[in-house]
Amino acid sequence: MTATEPGERRSARKLGVVAFQGLQLAFIALVIAHICLGWGYHVLWNCLLLALAYVVVTVAHRWGGAPDSPRQAREPLEVAPPVTGRWSALNSPADRTPSHGIHAHGQTYAIDILAEPEPGSRPAFRWLWPLARRPQAFPAFGAPILAVADATVVRACDGRRDHLSRNSLPGLLYLMLIEGSVREMSGVRQILGNHVILDLGNGTYAAYAHLQRGSLTVREGDRVRAGQVLARCGNSGNSSEPHLHFQLMDGPDPDAARGIPFTWHGIGVPANGEIFEAHPAAVTRP
């Protein structure tokens, strides 16, 4: 079977995401119509539409992330770390790919990092109480986020609120079962929250997600230098607590892009739970 061309593959992924959103909206509209207008068919028929929506999005999310052959695989691109100080890794591609369980939104090799300035300084996960905490309770909130290379800003989205944490069991279930589904239906901007995407050149783009509202220091079209402050870490979008979601991808649209492996200068790729110290460093130009 002939491999699908990259442009066609990106278009198919984008179409899958759009189809998922449309099917979910149709499901909601039919349920409302059934209740308000008293339509005579059995409401469970609507569930077929919802099931089809999740089949579509599952295929779109899990297909097309890995290269088609070893010859097409890209070597990890070395860039500077996007933060300074003491941090820990979560959902790391050093442990598995796709690191977040899906290829969707270009996040095959994405990583989440959380500030750990001192042992025990980050509020721990709770089974029940407190249900949520203010983002200011976490040391990552407000930490400066840095450009990983000389680049051009191609997307800078602000204005989403920094919500309460979801780092209790009830909060996490709410995030996974309700809030996450609503954000998925609403589009990638609601998932990423406040975010910045940089064009590093040579078909490589860096995405920074869950940034603090009102903290962006750049606009679309700006040229930035490696180590320049882009924004501050926040808790916007599909986020359980203040942290930075970072990834490299092969296009500026996360709905259509494929992930690209990375390595941070002087650090590598930290594994899940690994504590690392990030220092400003020169970067190998892409």
TrEMBL record:
The keyword Amino-acid biosynthesis does not apply. The chain crosses the membrane at residues 15-37, 43-64. Residues 179-250 form the M23ase beta-sheet core domain. Gene3D superfamilies: Glucose Permease (Domain IIA) (2.70.70.10). Keywords: Membrane, Transmembrane, Transmembrane helix. This is M23 family metallopeptidase. It comes from Streptomyces coeruleofuscus. The lineage of its organism: Bacteria, Bacillati, Actinomycetota, Actinomycetes, Kitasatosporales.
